[in-house]
Amino acid sequence: MKMNFAQLNSEEQRVLAQLKATLALRLAEEAWRADPELRGSCPAGGLVMKIGVSGTGPSIRLELPPSAELSDASVRRPSLLLYFPGPGAAMRVLSGAKGAAIPLPLGPGALRVLAFFRRASTRATELLRDPGTPDVARANLLLAATLFGLEVIAGESYLARRMQIVPDGSVCVRAEDISYFVIKKENRIEIRNGAAPTSADAELVFSNYRSAVEVLSGARQAVVALGSGDVRIEGLLPLVQGLFAVLDRLSWYLGVEV
Amino acid sequence: MSDISMEKSDRTDGDSKRGDDRQGARFAASLAYFERAAKVIPGGIYGSKSPGFLVPGRFPYYLSRAAGSHIFDVDGNEFIDYLCGYGSQIVGYGNPAVDGPALEQARMGDLLNQPHPVMVELAERLVKLVDGMDWAVFVKNGTDATTLATSIARADTGKQIIIAADGAYHGAANWCSTNVFPVFTQTEQRDVRFFPYNDVAALEALFAENAGKVACLILTPYHHPTYRPQQLPTPEFLQAAERLCRAEGAWFIIDDIRANFRLDARGSHAYFGTHPDLVTMGKALANGYPISVLLGNENLRKTASSFFITGTYWMSAVPMIASMATLDEMERLGGTARLAQLGGMLREGLESLGREAGFGARVSGPPAIPYLTFDEDSDLYLNQRFCAAMADRGVFMHPHHNWFISLAHTEDDIARTLEAAREAFRELHPEARGVK
């Protein structure tokens, strides 16, 4: 059943706001990866920013280039905190509607960082919608959004019993050379990007970028892709099936209207 | 047989690693049906028959017919079948000794306003046959029987808690299913407690924690969870189960839906020497005709009599006729001794071939209900690869669910299966032995 934000309970509102913030930052990062022009417009020396939503827990951080890709491992300070006074404001603004967002400069270049984030968010949406976007870019965007979305919602009480019966373990998710490692432990899910999994308990493999795009964008039913062999699952099936249930919940969240 | 021979010749052409295209062609009709189904049926094929529960692309999705111990898919592929309609086939598909009288009754009327006299005859027969039972109520699915059993236990005791083993399957009703949505976990599932099978201390602790509130303990006669090796009960465990139920004033239920008549004609509880108050049976009860039964002892007759029990199709005559004939045919074909003999051959052969190929292949469960796992791979990669390789060779063995032997299986079936297994073990790459 389609819901709107006001119909959610307070926990769901908090989770959805966190989800929206996470997806905004992850998609901005993937757009930065996919689009050289956008990358060229990134402030010199990269950027670090955070999104904070009042009452929803720790703020969420974006670093470009990602710290894992830098030789200098020193901790970089954020120059911008995009602050939302509550989950409702985050939901509205990050869904493209009008609402209260307060950019708080934390260091030099904060306005440039904010401008870049806006450009990157817009570009991510364009890349997702434009049929001319290379499959690899769309697959990267969709996989990042989906998997990091799982990470956000896994701890909510709606999924508590489900997470209890899903065995702990790791799943390697691949589409050609895109690779993620999903680690499920108790009621948490952790996503590792690009890790080389040598000992995954299960594998979920899209036969190519296109099949990942079709399934993750909803253009093709996952079950049909599975039946036809375009998606392959192997190993500890209850773990993968358990994640499918979390995926269903993610899809429910993404269907909530402002 | 012809199709199996064809599979063998395909296999020996040097291409043991079948490509996706060849698999796609092999199951083209299955896949076409599945794609149509996905548009009009949730999940295409829902539940335990979903392609995702097997190895997609390596097994058929739709079957069109069966005979004896063999099944045929919509693409014309033939398989020696070790799933037996999830256990329902015990004297073989299309057995004329069962289908003959059943079809004759179908022509004369199946679902009538009032029960057919065969209902009395079948109840009398089961009460006489099944150890310790005094009455019978006929339903359709296993879920009907287990739900009725726990409901009667709750009504009789006025208590709410149901204790069950972790990972045990007792059906698809909200109280016992894996549909763990909060709306169910906060209602029907709220009062179901779980403990690890065979763990006496944990069971004792659970009874102690819920003292005065436990309506029943429901157990399968032995543990047959999906995705895991099967576990036989220890004598101490079953003794503790009975003792704790008696002390609490809770009823002891044995859910024998999956195993009935494959271990002991008197019920699997008789095989293991335990004494339940309620027993559910199904599947093999009528060789695939839709009927299950809840049997109970004298202690619960009054409550069962005062319970409103009904279902439109629950008293249909044909499955009861089929059940009577199945009981006769089981006896004629050698019963549980024959099943154990065939299952023993399969077990011994598979374990031995596995060892020869360097794998820790282990068959768990009773001989007539075997399940193969690999000691070196608890994640089941090897199960999936082995069963897929067997399916390539015309043998239907489920990678995640226990298998079943029927009285229609023959020594020749077992020999062909083991011949296929020798090649399937060989096909598993050596590096796959250390999958994790």
Give a brief description.
Chain A has 258 residues and is α+β, with helices and mostly antiparallel strands.
Write the layout of secondary structure elements.
The complex is a heterodimer of chains A (about 260) and B (about 425).
Chain A: H1 10-34, H2 36-40, E1 47-53, E2 60-64, E3 80-84, H3 87-94, E4 102-105, H4 110-129, H5 135-153, H6 160-165, E5 169-175, E6 178-185, E7 188-193, E8 202-206, H7 209-216, H8 222-228, E9 231-235, H9 237-254
Parallel strand pairs in A: 1-3, 5-8
Antiparallel strand pairs in A: 1-2, 3-4, 5-6, 6-7, 8-9
Chain B: H1 2-11, H2 20-26, H3 28-40, E1 63-67, E2 70-73, E3 78-81, H4 96-108, H5 118-129, E4 135-139, H6 142-157, E5 161-165, H7 182-185, E6 192-195, H8 200-209, E7 214-219, H9 235-248, E8 251-255, H10 268-272, E9 278-281, E10 292-296, H11 301-306, H12 317-332, H13 335-356, E11 361-364, E12 371-374, H14 381-392, E13 395-396, H15 411-427
Parallel strand pairs in B: 3-13, 5-6, 5-7, 7-8, 8-9
Antiparallel strand pairs in B: 1-2, 2-3, 4-10, 9-10, 11-12
Helix pairs in contact in B: 4-12, 5-12, 8-9, 13-15, 14-15
Task: Please describe what this structure looks like.
- Chain A has 258 residues and is of the alpha+beta class.
- In chain A, 45% of the residues lie in helices and 20% in strands.
- Chain A contains 9 helices and 9 strands.
- In chain A, helix 5 packs across helix 9.
- The model of chain A has no long low-confidence stretch (mean pLDDT 93).
- In chain B, helix 5 crosses helix 12.
- The radius of gyration of chain B is 22 Å and the shape is globular.
- Chain B has 15 helices and 13 strands.
- The N terminus of chain B is likely disordered.
- By secondary structure, chain B is α/β, with parallel strands linked by helices.
- In chain B, the strands form 3 sheets. Chain B has a 7-stranded mixed β-sheet, sandwiched between helices. Chain B has a 4-stranded mixed β-sheet with strand order 1-2-3-13. Chain B has a two-stranded antiparallel ribbon with strand order 11-12.
- Chains A and B meet through helix 6, helix 8, strand 9 and helix 9 of A and helix 2 and helix 3 of B.
